[in-house]
Amino acid sequence: MLNYCAICEAIRTSQFIQNMCLKYWMDEKSVGRYDLNKYCRILAKKFHFAGELNSQARQSAAERTGSAIARFDHNTLNEVGWGVSMVNISQDVTLLTQR
Q1: Torsion of Cα atoms, 65 then 69 then 75 then 76, to 10°
Q2: pTM value?
Q3: Angle ∠(77,80,84) on CA atoms, nearest 5
Q4: Cα angle 3-43-60, degrees, rounded to a multiple of 5
């Protein structure tokens, strides 16, 4: 029988890493995909629960964040309208990381 609590914890940890990578991208200038991967290692050392997730899963979370950022940049450059401002996104990320 699967341990559903462990699966849920791994999903929450992955989402936490994605949110922290997104916040790092928003706070720092000129952050690339490689920088997000390096940031995962810092998060693993800083947060015990993030260190319990294996490195491949952490890197995957950072790569998904990098893809989302690239998609956001592409849509912004091509003026795809979402009706969402960076201020609202920043507030949402701040709320998610305070949990």
Answers
A1: 150
A2: 0.73
A3: 100
A4: 60
